[in-house]
Sequence to fold (155 residues):
Amino acid sequence: AEGQLHENDAARRISNLVVGEGIKLSDEIKEGQKKMQNEYITILGIFAAIVLAFTGGMTFTSSVLENIHKSSIYRIAFITLIIGCILFNLIWLLIDFIRNMNEKAIKKKWMFWTFNLMFICLMIFTFVAYKYNWMAKEEIINQRFQDEQQVEEQK
Fold:
């Protein structure tokens, strides 16, 4: 009877050990599935960001090029910079959201600030160029026309 108790005790220990290992293995599998799901979402998110960037960029570019003759160079440059800044920040936010889902830190935050600062500086430059009329088409055309007239008068 005592030997049988010892065997039952050993069998219980082995079964508890097997059940414990099974639960541990089950938890590891669930954790692996969660990580895999996050990786799939990351891949789909990056693909969506790329598609959004190309689609938005192409649509914007085609509309700007169709209507380029209707507005001044300053307006075109300013609107292009604003939309470029919006697209850049939208894509950055999407990728940052994906990064947060995977619990990864931002590695190149300086790039975000550099590009936004560049957009702002270019917008300020465009405004100053507009204020001082640095890119006046009419003046250049008039100057060329006057130069051509002077050349013809000299002949």
Observations:
- Residues 2-66 form the longest helix (65 residues).
